[in-house]
Amino acid sequence: MVTRVAVVGASGRLGSLACSVIEQQSDLALVAQLDSRSDLGEMLGADVVLDVTAPGVSATIVDHAVRAGLNVLVGTSGWSDERLRTLRTLLASHPESGVVVVPNFSIGSVVATHLSTIAAQWFESIEIVETHHAAKVDSPSGTAVRTAELIGKARADLGPVVAPHTDQRARGQQVASVPVHSLRLQGVIARQDVHFGGTGETVTITHETFSASSYEAGILLSLRAAATATGLTVGLDALLGLGPVAPGTADGVDSDSDDAA
Question: Based on CB atoms within 10 Å of each CB, which residue in 58, 90, 127, 229 is the most buried?
Answer without folding.
Answer: 58
